[in-house]
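Observation: inputs received (chain + 2H-imidazol-4-ylacetic acid).
Thought: call the complex predictor directly.
Action: predict_structure
Action Input:
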Amino acid sequence: MELLLTNIGVLATPTGNSARKGKAQGDISIVEKAAIGVSDGKIAYVGPELSSPSASRVIDCGGRLATPGLVDAHTHLVFGGWREKELSLKLAGVSYLDILKGGGGILNTVGNTRAATEAELVEKASGLLSDMLRHGTTTAECKSGYGLNLKEELKQLHVVDTLRKRQSIDLVSTFMGAHAVPIEYKNDREAYIRLICEEMLPAIAKDNLAEYCDIFCETAVFGPEESARILAQAKGLGFGLKVHADEIDPIGGAEMAAAAGCVSAEHLIQTSDQGIRDMAAHDVIAVLLPATSYYLDKPFARARKMIEEGVAVAVATDFNPGSCPNLNLQFPMNLACLRYRLTPAEVLTAVTLNAAASIGRSETTGTLETGKNADIVIWEASNLEYIYYRFGSNLVNTVISKGEVFPVR
Ligand code: IZC
Ligand code: ZN
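Observation:
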């Protein structure tokens, strides 16, 4: 073995290769006094301490907690500029959608992203990824959607491709050309939808630049019928489907996601009872983003009800320059526990195995089991409850990503 982690006080992990729902979301494996062995970047041993360990490198975990590396299943990682100037508008009571309607919000970031070179975007996102890694994230999904024309969307997706080779977080690309209608198409949204369906999706599929297609299905952005049309086209081209649904207004996004065959529906702050039942019936994973509720001062999604109705729940950051400028997944983990009232075990599953399942990675990461990637967090904590309790500090001690060790403290 190339690496052995010994003296793990508590090892906490969900198990299996697919999303866990209902009661099973909270059934995790807890092993005290554990060890993990790593070979070729994969977990080769997990279980009780070995009596005669042999490995080229041994790390004594000092009785600390070990969990799977965190999986951030919803980020808008690649963008130019920031939007701190919108803070005073927010404080003056201007809503997120009103800022967008006025040509700000997403459209402001589109201007800054188009103005940046590919190299500049790589540099910036690379710094953000180092920060994510230090906070325990070893896999992340990244959405495009700040280009809103073919050339600029390709630029964003190429940035993710470059980053995949340059750093240690495993990246999953999602094409989100339907994030907003760009100013050039303000008076002809139909032409923009055709551009997405007829030019952007086929070009991105041809170059294999994204595994998923996502849509901002929201009042005054893309309606459920428009979203369903774009998703049908994406499905035909082989994309997995995702949708930003019922974030601000309850417009039937979850129901549409279930009917369209989406792998996941995300946000779901305002989702109806019917929407929750439809998601359960069609195995749509709920990717919930509580730090966005916090930052936009919106209600919190009905996560408890979703679990009770049999929907697999994942939790992610929604990191983006507008509605959630936080990339530390520990903060939404705390909110999921205290505001959604999920148990520490349910939240752990939400940010590891279920998050991995929502981006097609549950065969390779999201649990501490032999054969999976050695994606591990050693926490500055001696039990699972502590990481929800001591909110506000970075509680990561060491991150291991595909066997590579990153000391944090
Ligand atoms: O830049 O505002 N909700 N898209 C949908 C976002 C938030 C990102 C942004
Ligand atoms: Zn989002």
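Thought: report the result.
Final Answer: The chain has two domains: 3-68+367-407, 71-358. Residues 269 and 301 are 4 Å apart (CA to CA).
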